Protein 1
Amino acid sequence: MPQVVLVNPLIPPNTGNIARTCAATDTELHLIAPLGFEISDRYLKRAGLDYWPYVKLHYHESLEAFKALHQQRGGRWLGFSVAGSHNYASFQFQADDWLLFGSETTGLPPAVLAACDATLYIPMNQPKVRSLNLSVSVAVGLFEARRQLGYLH
């Protein structure tokens, strides 16, 4: 099953909402430091409420620590970015994909984007809108991957 990876997330309610989506879909959530909050942050927990016991949460002190886990498990890194090369809706997802999302203000760092097997974008019609909210982007990407892989029963 695809996994969600947040690289340096900054806003607790976004991460809380993403954690709730991951709990509801039984999807592993990986947080890569530095974070813009503490995992115990009350805003983070408020967004997840009583769902926290169901979140398969993994915290990584650094990108290098996350890379070590990825090497053990395998799978593709798929970076979501407004500058991605492939429309997420026409991309073929695989069960062992890692869906990577960057911080709310800067997106994925260039070095992470360069390390991705593919970069994906979510099309938007209004050019004056820079990007979608991080929690919305994660939900859109995760549910499309789950749809393609037959996990929406």
Protein 2
Amino acid sequence: MSETKTLYVVSDSIGETAEKVAKATISQFDQDAMDIVRIPFVRHTEQIRNIIEEAASNGGVICHTLVSQELRESFEQIAREEHVQYVDILGPMLNIVSNVTDSRPRMKPGIIHRLDQEYFKRVAAIEFAVKYDDGKNPSGFKKADVVLVGVSRTSK
């Protein structure tokens, strides 16, 4: 049996997108095919160099969702120098959409996770549910969109 390899997930934001792609990929193989190591908030070339050198030392591979063109170019150059295999998940899509729409991307990491009005509405809904979930304070019923009634501990 071969040694489990490492797939490094590198991002200049939280790394959720790249990790989902990595997990979807690995799920197509044996359970112990690869370990995933997520490395979020990468913003400097020196961080990239350290990650790539670690991957090179243990035969790992890397996928990334770096938004910055400068960081992507540095990443590509260092990975070639160190002979590390990698996948740029976001870069090709940014280029294609930019060409098709004849516009430039914002180039801001983490923009998909921004705190917008929808986010705050979801948080308020969760807080409301927690506050009134036991039925001890029926004043919440008047404010609710939906009220589920049932026996306790039945996962309503």
Protein 3
Amino acid sequence: MSAPGFVPTRQLVLVDLLALILGTRPGQRAVVAVDGPDGVGKTHLAQELVALAGHVAGRAVQTVSVDGFHHPRAHRYARGRTGQTCYQDSYDYEALRARVLRPFRAGRDIVPAAFDVAADVPVDPAPVALPEDALLLVEGVFLRRPELRGEWDATCLVTAPAPVSVPRGNARFPASRVAGDEDPAHPANERYVEAQRLYRLQARTWPPEWIVDNTDLQRPELVWPDPDEPQWFEQ
């Protein structure tokens, strides 16, 4: 039981992070990418920021997941199931631009998804109207890849070592788990781990504005990119 007036460490970190993010293009629409590997906690963190903004911010904050912009299964696996194809063929960035990024920049409504990856079918959700100074959080993997330069006004990297993020990610899909898959080196994780390795090689020249070490979910740490500490970009 928390003592009266006690504010958990996670909430304090989220308040600080939200204050920094809200400073992006004040008075105008802005897009911030929330980047990080599978299982690190990006989706939950973005949702927490949206919920918190409703209480402390004078600016609307909306979140969209890049997971709503997968290619169909046939496209994703057409060239095999390797780390390279996972990195190169998973997402339809043109659909993300057409439904979210371009309309948002133009002051129009956004359509927050184009594809249901679990059902492997296109979707057409209702448009979402946002104020003229809204802040849009786009969360997902591979968001600092070269072809997305220019799409974000700022980026936040959510990080944790693979021995932490891989088991977390696999725990979301209990029906498809296999014995031993909590180990990042397990064959079941090979394509995802390799995809992240390929991605990190390309993302090293694009440091994020903010980094959240989400290893301990109760006590995350807000840190900044430091060229003398490259380990943040190796996780």
Protein 4
Amino acid sequence: MSDAYEHVFVEANGIRFHVVQAGPPDGPVAMLLHGFPEFWRGWASQIDALAAAGYRVWVPDQRGYGESDKPQGVDAYALETLADDICALIRNTGRDTVTLLGHDWGGVVSWRVAARNPELVERLVIVNSPHLAVMLRHMSVGRQRLRSWYMHFFRIPRLPERLLRRHDFRGLVRVLRSGSRPGAFSDEEIAQYREAWSRPGALTAMLDWYRALMRDRSRIHADTRIPMPTLLLWGVQDEALGIEMAQPSIALCDRGELQRIEGAGHWVLHEEGADVSWRILGFLRGDAVAVAEPAARPVAAVRA
């Protein structure tokens, strides 16, 4: 971790966000959104690479996570509110547009912001997160229905919190380590995750993201196409979100590119951090997919 990181608090959309910042203050902004059950550290492997490339990097703890505020009640975590958060943060950067990057739930929010407020997003990078319209179609059918069992479990009041908190958050640690290669999450990182999960109200707030989505899913209209250049990275071994949702997602992008990372799963940001950074920077430079690709990292690329 770099000593050059700045930890600031930003008021946006009526609450206070903890935001990690790095890179030249006058650079174009790259905003990185984490997913469940992470916090800003989910993008730790990419922050330095983007900052070194000249980007002003903003990595917020999203609503309910880490050191950001944790409003009470499921209503506070509705998808439109989560998207409003990011739009407000983008406006706080002082830039007209940003490059928006999201993993897992951060990807869901990024897809929504890009579809709803395209004037704020210059380029979009999504990692292991399907377009919301694709996710809503797949979560009730086929193999993804089985993979999504935990979303239904999380709807139960209080019981998930009790089970996930037991034995020093052993269940959440298992979520990270059982779905990734050995060593992807160090003991030091796990200790920091436990500290984040232990903050008052954090665990319920994290689960309320799922509760709000499952409650509202029949009313969500999410088929909007994505107009800006979009890179979708997908760790093929993802046990929670199936690769079969990747191509339908990129098909909803006017200028989209799909790259499959064969040897990694859902936690590809940790398993293949340097490779992910390489791919992101190549996309931001406008490199052709097949140029200078390392032999050990074959890319299967699909353009919409």
